[in-house]
């Protein structure tokens, strides 16, 4: 969806014209240079972190970065015991 928005195209148009190799290039490009609105969130967090730290606060960028959904709960990995417990449950 993000790529379609950035390119000003519909999903149908992208499906018809975008090759798998070009999609892989876009995915790799997005890893280096985000094309989504998240980029603006990151830039705002950088500025907010710099301002807060210049005033004596001790914050990291992750502390002020917008979170759009609840974080996924972390599941403990108990090795084979956890695997067998999951099978039994």
Structure description:
The chain is 64% helix and 0% strand. By secondary structure, it is an all-alpha fold. It has two domains: 1-36, no CATH class; 37-67. The longest helix is centred in the middle third of the chain and has 17 residues, at 38-54.
Please render the helix and strand layout as text.
Elements lengths: L1 H6 L3 H7 L2 H13 L5 H17 L6 H4 L14 H10 L1
Compact summary:
The chain is mainly α.
Q: How many β strands by DSSP? A: 0
Strand count, sense and closure of the main sheet? none
Q: What structural category do the secondary elements indicate?
A: mainly alpha
- Radius of gyration, in Å, reads 20 Å
Instruction: Output mean pLDDT.
Output: 85
- The number of distinct structural domains comes to 2
End-to-end C-alpha gap: 37 Å
Dominant shape: flat
Counting DSSP H or I runs of 4 or more residues, the number of helices is 6
User: Order of helices and strands, N to C?
Assistant: HHHHHH
Low-pLDDT regions = none
Helix content: 55-70%
Percentage of β-strand residues = under 5%
Give keywords.
single chain; 89 residues; mainly alpha; 2 domains; flat
């Amino acid at each position: 969806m993000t790529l379609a928005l950035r390119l000003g195209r519909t999903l149908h148009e992208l499906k018809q014209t975008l090759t798998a190799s070009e999609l892989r290039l876009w995915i790799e490009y997005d890893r280096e240079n985000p094309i989504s609105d998240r980029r603006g969130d990151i830039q705002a967090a950088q500025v907010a972190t710099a301002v807060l730290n210049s005033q004596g606060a001790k914050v990291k960028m992750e502390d002020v970065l917008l979170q759009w959904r609840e974080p996924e709960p972390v599941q403990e990995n108990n090795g084979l015991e956890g695997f067998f417990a999951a099978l039994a449950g």
